[in-house]
Amino acid sequence: MTEWISLRAEDACEWILTGAENIDRDPKLLKDTDGKPMVVVQRFDAPTWEDAKVVHEKLMAAVREEIGMNIKTEQDLADYIIAQLNEISQTDPTAMEWLLENRIACNEALADHPTVQVYPSENGEPIKVGMLGIINGIVGAIGEGKPMAGFGFIAAVYDDDDNFVRFRRTNDPEVKPA
Asked: 115 near 140, Cβ under 8 Å?
């Protein structure tokens, strides 16, 4: 049996499942991507990663229900998707960055969609759409009269070396329009 620890950020938008021995080797696991302390949700024993993942997912669902992560608004949906994307990104950040950076040509009908975010045509290049543009199309666009109006609710955050770090709400102060 292996001892596992399920941790979450205070806002429940970031989660980590790790073996207990990893905490001693990498104390950074005890902080979220903003440097704030992670909350230990539970320590438990499980024989395999797959078994631990099942327990971790049940803990995530219970905490989200407990803190009222029910979806009533576009912002609630964005927060839920951000939490899921950040958790998924931890398993393979390189793949997530590749998915974010790759865009494909799309037609005018998709480009004219009221909430899908696309890259406009430049110098005869086709209009392009990426994974984040589609995800934001599902969530919706920030309404008129609000900061960042017309942008999607979800943004990808990159470090100073242009490496993908995490997802967060577009209207967070750290996010700047491209």
From this structure: yes
Higher model confidence: residue 151 or residue 69?
Answer: 151
Residue 80: name the closest of 10, 31, 130, 139 by CA. 139
In a domain, 34, yes or no: yes
36 and 93 part of one domain: no
The H-or-E segment that residue 49 falls in is helix 49-66
The answer on pLDDT for 27 being more than 90 is no
Q: What is the largest CA-CA distance in the chain?
A: 59
167 touches 131 (CB < 8 A): no
Give the model's pLDDT for residue 102: 94
Q: Do 153 and 80 fall into the same domain?
A: yes
Termini Cα distance of the chain: 48
